[in-house]
Predict the 3D structure of the following.
Amino acid sequence: MLSIRDLKVSINGKEILKEINLEVMAGEVHAIMGPNGTGKSTLASIIAGRDVFEVSGGQVLFDGKNLFDLSVEQRACEGIFLGFQYPVEIPGVSIVNFLRTAINEQRKYKGLDPIPAPEFLAKMNEAKKMLDVHSNMTSRSVNEGFSGGEKKKNEIFQMAMLQPRLAILDETDSGLDIDALRVVAKGVNELRSKDNAFIIITHYQRLLDYIIPDFVHILFDGRIVKSGSKELAFELEEKGYDWIRKST
Amino acid sequence: MDVILTEYSFKDKMVELFHETVQKNFNNDNPYLKQLRKEAIQEFEKVGFPSNKQEKWRNTNLSKPLKLEYVHHFEPFEQITDVGQLFMCEVHELESHLFAQLNGWFVHQNGGINHLPGGVIVGSLASAFVQFPEIIEKYYGKFAPYQNNGLVALNTAFAQDGLFVYVPDNVVVDKPVQIINLINLTENLFIQPRNLIILGRNSKLQLLYCDHSLLHKHSLINSVTEVFIDENAEFENYKLQNKDNDSTLITNVWITQKSNSNMLTNVLTLNPGTIRNNINILLDGRNCNAELYGLYLLDKEQHVDNNVLVDHAKPDNYSNQLFKGILDDHATGVFNGLVMVRKDAQKTNAFQKNQNILLTDKATIDSNPQLEIYADDVKCSHGSTVGQLDNEAMFYMRSRGISEEVARMALMNAFASAIIDKIRIEPLRNRINEMVSKRLRGELSICDQCILNCRDERKISFDIDLSGIR
């Protein structure tokens, strides 16, 4: 599904990703771990299409399409979703309007008519129920005045509504209490299927108690220095990032 | 009598015009009006038009419109007998008492005075001058001071017609009163409408005032509106300004509030040409509530200048100003807001905010929110922001599949919605919402402009019911 080959990325001349290779297949959950400032969020942003970076080498293919040929919104319409580390507040735009617009724009891209109102409402009610979202949250402006936990929950809620084929969750777990963490995990676990894939970017092993990854990668100094099964996360938790520093 | 105004000195011409025609045109005035005109023209002769050398006029230049030639009518240009012929009528969900002014003259068929339920009077000021001299002497010219104000002085000297509304004590006007102010002439026109609105104690009035021009000729409008809101009364004033690029509109609004009164004014400028709104609120009682909102959406070479004064003359009053603008192309905007808190106005709560989005680096806004506080126990704040569309929000929306264009529109609509949401008349709010979206998409052009959507190429057409004009 996603194929990253020899990806090199820099910002203001400083190389942040040095040579990334990663294959993600449908039905898989990948966890990317690593200390702060090693390029985890850069990787997520590059896939979503943020343009503050320069790609100095390599390529990223999504279902064989070169992602760098696609705009941010085209990537989303192709099925890529980024759960933001710092979700943005948009005063004056209600969540319900935001989501209806997003769904209809994605449908338009696929040549479909706008979603019928009853179908949209049913979908929204289902997602609300699954994630225990307050009924009045969706009439509020996107993220405006939300607590940190509410913002992250809203990211997962959007993911449930948009049903992407590849969801990248960028430190969605940071700053969450255990209840919020469970909601995030529940969202991922319920949406997980043989047709979609997840990349979970996290600093801690904690989230992986609730979402069992198929693969764990350790990103360090712009490179994936170790890949393995979920046991790698436990090992990392036990030995700390110093272990990685020493072994590289 | 029509007079062609030209020459380099518009000021001298106006003074001359007054003296030449005073006998002929204003001879039927009562002594109070005669005296007022005489004093006003003397003041105008002394003060003249504002110039760029004055701080408050630094960024709005009148010299260009004042160089043009205009006609000045002392009588209605044409007597309208059948409004149905002039306007296309179509029923619309906004129910209102509907009136129109054409080229500055109140359009009427039955003597210009209309009696609405509860003893409410709505009509032409010219008729009120004749029929209600006692009301005129009590209120007219009492709230808009012409001293040191050339524009008010000139209007006071020449004013002949406009809107007159009188709401007696304890009367709530059942439907909004709506005035459509049209300019439609084949020559350049200078007009000076004058409006007087009086709200008795415990009364309520919603007024919707729409400024439009329909022909591509130059027009210069210098209007003065005086509003008196007595104790415990409630006044809402919505203004929709949708003009063409060759028009210059100067509005001078003076509102006086007595104790426990509530006032809301919302100025929505969708296409300005050149507009200067002078809004002056005097809080002359206690526990008054004054809310002032404004939205301006400008492009090309359009210019809007909102000049606001809220005078907290007495203690215990609340005022809030929020003016927001989106400026595209070479458009220019000005916000001059002054909150004056007088020495005795303790426990004043006054807030003032001006927010702007500049879509190009050629668009400019000059924003001056000011506080002048002479009392010590007050709560006041002011601020202004100028920025571009939020790039982070754009990226966030696009990352959900929303195209750049749709995301831009959504963000601009969201920015404007803070003002639109303050409209308390629901059908109006919905319609303005549509119009703003249309305007932001660049689809609300000059030729299909009108208060609420023109649908065909007819000269004047509305999809609201204008058959109700009496």
Remarks:
- Chain A touches chain B at residues 48-50, 71-73, 75-77, 81-82, 84, 87-93, 97-99, 101-103, 105-106, 109, 141, 158, 162 (CB under 8 Å).
- The radius of gyration of chain A is 18 Å.
- Residues 10 and 16 of chain A are 5 Å apart (CA to CA).
- The mean pLDDT of chain A is 91.
